[in-house]
Amino acid sequence: MTFDRTVKIAPSILSADFADFGREIQAVEAEGADWIHVDVMDGHFVPNITFGPATCKAIRPHIKTVMDVHLMIAPVDPYIEAFAEAGADIISAHVEAGPHIHRTLQAIRGAGVKAGLAINPGTPASVLEPLLDMVDLVCVMTVNPGFGGQKFIHSCVEKVRTIRAMIGDRPVHIEIDGGVDPVTAPLVVAAGADVLVAGSAVFKGGSVRNPAPYGANIRAIRAAAS
Ligand code: DX5
Ligand code: ZN
Question: Per-residue pLDDT tens for 69-83?
């Protein structure tokens, strides 16, 4: 993975067919996805449950691009090794998930994986200040985590601008997660984001048997953002 700030579209498989992840991933990659975003939820940190390291390991061979694992779990630390072993390229943990985020980020990098730090809509940018030299990605949540298809929270755009200024020259991606579509994508890219997670806006209207809408949806987000 080389670092650059070109806009990358990361479809979230939360909106894919859970019985067919392998082919869904192949379809969105063939239709232009840059990364694959993998939402892990525990029914404790967030009010929904998805899947764990075994599923991540099973889907890994189907991902040719970047496996971007977003952990919405607490605690995080006991599971880092398992997600690293499953083949994650990036593991993001939430700053709200526990009292020792600094240790968590050390552990992620220590496992040989790029470290991401996710922050909820209710968390200020200032929490990142002591941590920016320890991360490869900041994931700014623009919905409250737990479900796909929620409405974009516009007050988060200003926070993206603040974080972009804080990052300066550091090779740190800004990823936006929640409610990204052709209307909201240009707002966050103008504010400094470069990775756009999109679940419902990518998978709507398509399927593994009819993947062309995935491509049209990805191109619509990319075109709007540039
Ligand atoms: C929300 C997840 C997101 C979600 C985005 O908790 O972290 O990745 O899948 O879905 P959309 O794009 O539908 O808002
Ligand atoms: Zn996510």
Answer: 999 999 999 999 999
* Pair 50, 12: CB distance under 8 Å: no
Ligand 1 pocket, Cβ-based, cut-off 6 angstroms: 12, 14-15, 37, 39, 70, 143, 145-146, 148-150, 177-180, 197-201
Q: Which CATH architecture has domain 8-225?
A: Alpha-Beta Barrel (3.20)
* Amino acid making up residue 101: I
Which residues are within 8 A (CB) of 148 and not within 5 positions of it... i.e. 6 or more apart? 12, 14, 15, 199, 200
pLDDT of 168-226, one tens digit each? 999 999 999 999 999 999 999 999 999 999 999 999 999 999 999 999 999 999 999 99
| Domain residue extents for the chain | 8-225
